[in-house]
Amino acid sequence: MLDPVEHTLDQPAFASFFCILGAVSAIVFSTLGAAYGTAKASVGISSMAIKHPQLLMKAIVPVVMAGIIAIYGLVIAVLLAGSLHHHLSAYKGFLNLSAGLAVGVSGMAAGIAIGVVGEAGVRASAQQPKVFVAIILVLIFAEVLGLYGLIVAIYLFTK
Question: pTM for the complete prediction?
Answer without folding.
Answer: 0.86
